Amino acid sequence: MKLTVNGIDHDVDAPPEMPLLWVLRDLLGMTGTKYGCGIAQCGACTVHIDGKQQRSCVTPVSAAEGRRVTTIEGLSEDGSHPVQRAWAELDVVQCGYCQSGQIMAAAALLAEAPEPDDAAIDMAMNGVICRCGTYQRIRAAVHRAAELDGRRSR
Amino acid sequence: MNGHGSTRRTFLKTSVAATGGLVIAFHVPGAKRLAASGLTPAGGFAPNAFLRIGEDDTVTVLLAHSEMGQGIWTTLPMLIAEELDCDWSSIRVEHAPAAQAYAHTAFGIQATGGSTTTWSEFDRYRQAGAAARSMLVQAAAQEVGVPVSECRTGNGVVTASGRSLRYGELTAIAATLTPPESVPLRDPSEWSLIGTPTRRLDTPEKITGRAKFGIDVQLEGMLTAVVARAPSFGATLKSFDASAARAVPGVRHVVQVPSGVAVVADHSWAAIKGREILDIEWTSGPTSGVDSEELLAEWADLTRSPGVTAAERGDTADALAGAEQTIESLFFFPYLAHAAMEPLNCAVRIGPDGCDIWTGTQFQGPDQMAAAAITGLDPEQVRIHTTFLGGGFGRRANPAADFVSEAVHVAKAAGVPVKTIWTRDDDTRGGYYRPAFVHRARLGLGANGMPVAWDHDMAGQSILAGTFFEAGMPENGVDPSSVEGLVDSPYMAEVPNHRVGVHTPDPGIPVLWWRSVGHTHTAFVVETLIDQAAHAAGADPVEYRRKLLAEHPRHLGVLDLAAEKAGWGSNLSAGRARGVAVHESFGSFVAEVAEVSVSGNEIRVHRVTAAIDCGIAVNPEAIEAQIQGGIAYGLSATLHSEIHLKEGAARESNFDDYKVLRLAEMPDVDVHIVPSTDPPGGVGEPGTPPIAPAVANAVFALTGQRLTELPLKL
User: Fold this and answer.
1) Which of A59, A75, A91 is the C-terminal boundary of a domain?
2) In whole angstroms, what is the distance from residue B439 CA to residue B155 CA?
3) What CATH topology corresponds to B214-285+344-421?
4) What are the DSSP calls for B294-335, one per residue?
5) What is the nearest CA distance from A118 to chain B, expressed in angstroms?
6) What DSSP letter does each residue of B183-220 carry, written as one string?
7) B338 to chain A: nearest residue by CA?
8) A65 and A89 in one domain?
9) Residue B409: which pLDDT band, with cuts at 50, 70 and 90?
10) Cis peptide leading into B711, omega within 30 of 0?
11) Are both A45 and A105 inside the same structural domain?
């Protein structure tokens, strides 16, 4: 089966029901996308499929065939996406394990709502669990990313 | 100050000493000894075990401790750079290998825990940087032909007699010099990094997906395993049929290990699918009748009778009988899973020259010993490669080395390199929980409303019993980690008649330290009781505490600061109330004021104002993050999390039933740091204990309901 990840086509030999998460991590060696729960409860595995946030742990690889999959590795070449820059500026990360999912969820939110308010952030980001408790800085960093993004597009 | 005299720390020192032969002395091993031990790479300059300087000017700091989110990847390099005078951007960081050179300065084993890293390394890492600087200066003096007193350092350059020599240029000469025994450290007035908010050095890797956690380790020829474990703690394997599992495409081996049956496959998915169709028979096991609700009810009865005395003064019974008012409360705390975002995992390769282990661990020392015992190798032949930890919270510091031992068994039985991963269900149901506890307390107040008697009995499992730490326990069998924060409470010190009794039942459930350990329950009990006393006395909760803490300046300092910054006593919008708690743990003092509202039976925490006195604040940026995070971790246990045991196994299995705090519930947390010149205390854990009582006390202020069970339920 053909899978397009971060703009590159891959030939993948996997059963169609195999979750995209394990295809990315174990077959393609792209470990930036994390396993956290396997049942779409924690959001650590969040990727974009055709630009929308999706939980790769419950997405059969067959459902991603012929669509554009973007992972944390493909969000930017060098960590320069506004969300990544805001994350660095506000020193958001702690253990870092959930942050790929947080950043992918935030990037998908900003693509749809360039200036989200707290309520929109709470709704869009509530599905991504952080046990270190970086939530407060995540909220601030999403606002900051919106600012950075706005400046870029002006 | 008494911060460094905390029970647990003293105890751990004692206990480690008691386990025999472990070096406690502060020591920076010299370069020659390191070269002999094979710890230093060829080339560049490695003055000691903790840093090396390359010809390209890079300064690589080796961490004796594990980065699990607490920010030690940044704080320890700050200590070295403060003395080394290098360019901050030249710093690179690595986890050190497992070796005696990296043993904890207080515990004697290589370990990260107890909020000890900063204070335990405060001198050793500064000394390591100072020694390196002194050798570079000596090298420059030799090169230029001037006395060392004419050399100056700054930004990774030595200047002497008009010449500027980069540290990288000096490595060849410096490497030939003998490291000094000891170098005077800078006066705090000269510090430029310590005390300056400094951003994390691990951010670039962690925002791009490049950071490697244990679960990301993938080596040529390495297979992935999941293990089917017993359905109740302590049950053993009777028989199994793996024929169906072996037929799953990608499954390579199905092997028996002491903890169960491992399915070893080309990738995680095949291993998980294979395990689903394993046919296994288990014995019923020693805990198959354990039900946690029944346990808590039994222990509540048990606390009606006096336990082993852990603290006693005066005549408590007599003083209670003569008290003007008495308050009696019964407290319940459930078992809790750590639920780090990265489920447990460990990669192992056993070869003719030793055993390599890649994992995120807080306990390199005990893990290395355990792997050596299983493989029959010498500990030095077990090489532990510490990855980033996707959260630790105590679960990755297991004296029983459970997840490492199991992974070594799997690799040994399969005969190939294997990464053993735990699914979320495995992780949640895998035990080593924060032990459940019941406390029963009676407080007697005198005519002036102040406490005159405190009678207290508690029941819960010991964490240390049965581990190598047991040797350090007192003869009466009371686990210091059960009573920390209670028997050493400043309030108890002010109550002339008191008694604490401890029951230590053992239902056979594996238990372990969970961020802030005994303080997770004792702080709640103590700060609830004092709040009850204040209300019974008709006093303001902050004023009442101030009276009791008059002789405890550091408690008082954080209480006053948090109350002031929270606007204690000022009006709040309708439907909101404040609650307060103050607690010392791990050498630091924290007060928190929580502002809450209630809607139906839902408790909502809007804002938390925290004040911390952790002595010298090495990296204020990290301290703020740890207090915010410690509060979030505590709020999960305050509002949501509990493990129920039925038939000796957890009923909960994943984040759908083991609930934790989510982003929309996160309050705004303001953190205020008390300026201090006291030696550093801990910061990873001390933010957690006060939050649950602060919230419960606010709920009481708002509703009149006194909640004495976690998680809080209206």
Assistant:
1) A75
2) 56
3) Aldehyde Oxidoreductase; domain 4 (3.30.365)
4) HHHHHHHHHTTS--EEEEEES-HHHHHHT-SEEEEEEEEE-B
5) 9
6) -PPPPGGG-SSTTS----SSHHHHTTT-PPBGGG---T
7) A131
8) no
9) very high
10) yes
11) no
Give pLDDT, residue B12: 39
Q: Say what the pLDDT of residue B28 is.
A: 54
- What percentage of chain B exceeds 70 in pLDDT? 94
- Inter-chain CB proximity B631 and A133 less than 8 Å: yes
Close Cβ partners of B292 (under 8 Å, ≥ 6 residues apart): B334, B335, B436, B643, B644, B645, B646
Q: Check pLDDT > 90 for residue B227.
A: yes
How crowded is the C-beta side of B204, counted as CA atoms within 13 Å?
A: 7
CATH number of residue A100's parent domain:
1.10.150.120
Check if the beta carbon of residue B159 is closer than 8 Å to that of residue B152. yes
Asked whether residue A31 falls in the same domain as residue A60, the answer is yes
CB contact (8 A) between residue A87 and residue B424: no
Secondary structure letter of residue B575 according to DSSP: T
Q: Is residue A13 domain-shared with residue A40, that is, in the same domain? A: yes
Contacts of B205 in chain A (CB under 8 A): 96
- Quote the CA–CA distance of B160 and B166 in Å, as a whole number: 11
A134 contact residues in B (CB cutoff 8 A): 625, 628-629
DSSP summary character for residue B470: G
Show Cβ contacts of residue B116 under 8 Å, excluding neighbours closer than 6 positions.
B9, B104, B106, B107, B586, B682
Sign of CA dihedral B658, B663, B667, B669: positive
Alpha carbons A100 and A97: distance in angstroms, whole number: 7
DSSP strand pairing (A68-70 vs B45-48): unpaired
Pairing of strands B497-503, B308-313: antiparallel
Q: How far apart are CA B499 and CA B290, in angstroms?
A: 30
- According to CATH, where is 3.30.365.10 located in chain B? 3-206, 214-285+344-421, 292-336+433-703
DSSP class per residue in B596-656: EEEETTEEEEEEEEEEEE-SS-S-HHHHHHHHHHHHHHHHHHHHT--BPEETTEES--STT
CATH fold, domain B292-336+433-703, is Aldehyde Oxidoreductase; domain 4 (3.30.365)
Q: How many CA atoms lie within 13 A of B353 on its CB side?
A: 1
Whole-complex ipTM: 0.98
In terms of Cβ atoms closer than 10 Å to its own Cβ (0-12, 13-18, 19+), residue B101 is: buried
Chain-chain contact of B660 with A131 (C-beta, under 8 angstroms): yes
**For residue A19, what are the domain limits?**
2-75
- CA dist B431 and B395 (Å) reads 10
Rounded to the nearest 10 degrees, the angle between the axes of helix B691-703 and helix B519-536 is 30
Q: Are residues A11 and A65 in the same domain?
A: yes
* The model scores a pTM over 0.80: yes
Please indicate, yes or no, whether residues A43 and A6 belong to a single structural domain of this protein: yes
User: CATH code for B3-206?
Assistant: 3.30.365.10
Residues 6 or more apart whose Cβ sits within 8 Å of residue B199: A88, A91, B74, B621
Q: In CATH, what number is assigned to the domain containing residue A18?
A: 3.10.20.30
Domain count, chain A: 2
Residue B420: its H or E element: strand B418-421
Dihedral angle, C-alpha B197, B201, B206, B207, nearest 10 °: 70
Q: How far apart are CA B610 and CA B673, in angstroms?
A: 9
Q: Shortest CB distance from A122 goes to which of B69, B621, B664? A: B664
Question: Band of the pLDDT at A153, cuts 50, 70, 90?
Answer: low
